[in-house]
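Q: Got a minute? One more chain.
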Amino acid sequence: MTTVLRSFLPKKIIEENPQVYLCFSSEKEFVKPDGFDQINAFKNKEVYFIPYEDPTMDKITRNGPRFLEGLKALGELIHTGKLDD
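A: Always. Here it is, folded:
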């Protein structure tokens, strides 16, 4: 389990410098770790928030046929900046 958690440490995310960052919380609840301003996703405003109460969250985080719907919703979010209800 420690190996999985390490991949999500802020230092590792900064090193990887993602072009897109998905945050599974609301923008209001998100606390940006120090150094995240260096990440291209934050510099280029390619940060997307999916609040826990959003129905899309269930589609993305649970195994099953609805996962494909969640994947489609993520694509729409990244390309349009908003989730369809």
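A: Strands lie at 21-23, 47-49.
Q: Perfect, thanks.
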